[in-house]
Design goal:
This protein is mainly alpha-helical. It has one domain. It contains 13 helices and no strands.
């Protein structure tokens, strides 16, 4: 209870500090609103198309990872689980819990749900860890540089390589999967013991069974899962680019490569569960990076705030609707494990 209170207080302090004190020093909110209200109907329509395209890509990764899940139900679960990360501190863990509960409530087998939730999470994390290194390579090829991006890319790439190597090794050898599962269970049980919780009930054999299920699914669906994950991630970036361009942050100020570099950097930093959905952290980091690349203060702040509004508010609304409808959307016959 005390930990939750501390986390809530820290989140509130960060959010208030960013929006009430830091961003107003970068750009006056009056000037920011002046930039946004000058949008014409063509620009608003272009932004709406980008937002709808992004929303449409939420469901396919879950459809690829969980046979038997249709687009309608996949949309409900992804919107609701993503919306939960904007409401409660805890980051992706909150969304995972919501998604797992909804799928189990629909009657999908625990093993199938655990596999789907794990694989979609792993694929998203691998993208976020690897993308800064790709962005750094593109930026370097164009003669640009960014110290923060170099540091983040190096850390992200190191974690990416280790995570990918561990994942591949666990899939390649059953003995390694058993060893890794036993060690992970001991560490997790020790951590739970520190906070006076019961030890975990899984062990190396659990990971061995999970390995067999994973191999079976990935043999059939690794490509659809990968393509769906890339589409889901990159359409978010498209929304940012549209916000920048319609608000006057042109290619001569911030190039497409620089925008991608800033976005990958902040997306990775924003995944750290300091505030719900990275609110405050993402806005400040993205503004600082884009201004550093040459964007005008007022227009960059306007673009970043608009980007955050159109990527958060629609998901919050649809997520609440999804949470209200999910019991009525139970499949007549859920897919077997």
């Amino acid at each position: 209870m005390k930990t939750r209170i501390i986390v809530g207080v820290v989140s509130a302090v960060v959010i208030v500090a960013v929006f009430a004190f830091i961003l107003p020093r970068i750009a006056d909110y009056g000037a920011v609103w002046g930039v946004i209200k000058d949008l014409d109907w063509k620009e608003v329509l272009l932004l709406a198309v980008a937002v709808l395209a992004n929303l449409a890509t939420f469901a396919p990764p879950y459809m690829a990872a969980l046979p038997g899940l249709d687009y309608w139900r996949a949309s409900l679960i992804t919107q609701a689980s993503t919306a939960s990360t904007y409401i409660a501190p805890g980051g992706a863990a909150v969304g995972v819990g919501v998604g797992f509960a909804m799928l189990r409530g629909w009657g999908f087998a625990s093993a199938s749900v655990a596999l789907a939730v794990t694989l979609t999470g792993v694929w998203n994390q691998l993208f976020m860890l690897g993308a800064p290194a790709v962005a750094l390579g593109l930026l370097t090829a164009q003669g640009g540089s960014n110290t923060a991006l170099k540091t983040t890319a190096a850390i992200g790439l190191a974690i990416f390589v280790l995570a990918l190597a561990g994942f591949v090794a666990a899939l390649a050898r059953e003995s390694f999967a058993r060893w890794l599962g036993d060690r992970a269970a001991r560490i997790a049980s020790w951590g739970l013991g520190v906070i006076r919780r019961k030890p975990v009930t899984w062990d190396g054999e659990s990971l061995v069974r999970f390995r067999r299920q994973t191999i079976g699914l990935l043999r059939r669906r690794w490509l659809p899962l990968t393509l769906a994950t890339l589409a889901g991630q990159l359409t978010v970036f498209v929304v940012l680019v549209v916000c920048l361009r319609i608000l006057g942050v042109g290619e001569h100020q911030v190039t497409l490569t620089e925008a991608f570099a800033a976005w990958t950097l902040v997306r990775l930093l924003g995944s750290i569960p300091i505030t719900p959905g990275g609110i405050g952290i993402v806005e400040l980091g993205l503004t600082g990076a884009l201004v550093g690349f040459g964007g005008a203060n007022d227009r960059v702040v306007a673009a970043v705030l608009l980007y955050r509004v159109v990527t958060i508010v629609p998901t919050l609304v649809l997520g609440l609707i999804g949470a209200a409808l999910w019991r009525r959307a139970r499949p007549e016959a859920a897919a077997p494990a």
